[in-house]
Design brief:
Strands 7-6-12-10-9-8 form a 6-stranded mixed sheet. A 5-stranded antiparallel sheet has the order 2-1-5-4-3. The chain has 2 domains: 96 residues, Beta-Lactamase (2-Layer Sandwich), CATH 3.30.450; 153 residues, 2-Layer Sandwich (Beta-Lactamase). The protein is elongated, with a radius of gyration of 29 Å. The protein is built from 7 helices and 16 strands.
Amino acid sequence: MAMLVVDPQDGRIVSANDAASRFYGWSRAQLAGKPIADINTLPPAQIDEAIRRALSHKAIRFEFRHRLADGTTRDVEVFSGPVAIDGRQLLHSIVYDVTEYRRAQVDARRWQRVFEVAQFGLAYHEAASDTFEDVNDCYAQQRGYRREELRGMPVIDAYAPEEREAVLRRLAEADATGHVAFESVHQRKDGSGFPVLVEVASIRDASGRTTSGSPTRWTSASASARKAPCAKARTSTTPSSTIATMPCCSPRRTDPYSPPIRLHSGSSGGRRRSCARSGGKRWSTHPIRAWRRRSPSGSERAASPAS
């Protein structure tokens, strides 16, 4: 870790260690005697105030932006306090580079905003426990739940009973390959089902590991009409599902080694199929709200409700 010793009387660096030399890009000899104002981007008056607070123990932790030898700046967290050396009262400072951590915080807040305001269903859960950590309002409403009811619920319970064995195989496939897409049936709170097109992305941290040994999964679950059981079928698709992709930690996490999560999202699959034995009648899915059955005359009537 980078360490600096600063003389509070004139604000100059007295000494620096090798880690500080590597971080700032100046040699230790160049750092010695350099005014701290050459490094700290705050106005001189604010630097002086920070020195006074550190000397009086009113504060030991500070957040600054420090300038490097190449002119770039980095966000740093500094822990500073008085130390007596050769009869002089100096300030000993430990400097941590938190630039990437700050960026991760910004990204996390941005994705949390997407999670909250998205007009399609989103949810995420711990892969190890297979229970929902959180869902957005849209995801809960589509399934007839309140958000707090889904938190802690087993993810597999969101699927119709006859689909669950296949879903577990698909999730394992996603963990092995990184991505999988499949059709399934989700189950509402009232027991009714509705077809979905699910996409799962399995994500690990930069090292390819997680502390629990399970990857993070982000999932898109879009309302979709399954093919009717008939001899001949024509299928046309209009891409309209949104796939959510996030950094290697959850919207609420910035630690890449935190327990893995999965995210589920839902929007209209926009699939349309017609069947020869259905008299040319066309089944359509409309964004989230309902399926409709189209008669040969072109009129429509609701066939089954969808939340």
